[in-house]
Specification:
single chain, alpha+beta, Toxin ADP-ribosyltransferase, Chain A, domain 1, 4-stranded mixed beta sheet, 3-stranded antiparallel beta sheet, 6 helices, globular
């Protein structure tokens, strides 16, 4: 189900003939899961307040981030916004395994802060061994260091991000967009 929910969050405003829009239509058959997404988001934000701030890892496989993610812009910032739920783990090896499963892989090392914490989902997960921490949609990743390569079963990129935060204003705008549909 997470694939359907994340497809809606990432592709609702995609160009009609884009790969994302075609995938969205195929997966969801027009259902935008508005109430479900709102409830899941609400739970993640509330459970995040109970989660201990700690280091988490996110493995990404099968794609390369654009240069704009790594290079500071005219405002001296770089990074990006994830429109969907952001799944991370407290177990670095889980993230490395996931990142190594495709042709191109990356592992992000993220330090949660006092305010910006994900929800610990191990207690209700189908895969409790993955030790998942999930962040709400519209999580901002501030890239603060240069990536480096590491030796794993397949080469992957390790990048440390001391800042991972929710975009509160964007979330309010997104809620308005959901209501308008």
């Amino acid at each position: 189900m997470f694939q359907k929910y994340n497809s809606v969050l990432r592709g609702i405003k995609a160009e009609p003939e884009s790969r994302m829009a075609i995938s969205l239509k195929k997966l969801t058959k027009g259902n935008t899961y508005t109430t479900t997404l709102h409830c899941i988001n609400s739970v993640i934000v509330k459970l995040g307040k109970l989660t201990k701030a700690q280091k988490v890892y996110r493995g990404i496989s099968g794609g390369v981030l654009p240069d704009e993610f790594w290079t500071k812009n005219k405002y001296n910032v770089c990074g990006g916004v994830e429109f969907a739920f952001t799944s991370t783990t407290t177990d670095r090896e889980v993230a490395v395994r996931y990142a190594s499963s495709g042709k191109v892989g990356m592992v992000f090392e993220i330090q949660m802060g006092m305010v910006d914490r994900g929800a610990e989902l191990e207690w209700l997960s189908q895969y409790p061994g993955e030790r998942e921490i999930c962040f709400a949609p519209l999580t901002v990743t501030h890239c603060q260091v240069t990536p480096k390569t590491t030796t794993t079963p397949r080469p992957c990129l390790i990048a440390a991000f001391p800042r991972h935060s929710r975009c509160h204003r964007a979330l309010r705008c997104r809620k308005r967009a959901w209501r308008a549909q």
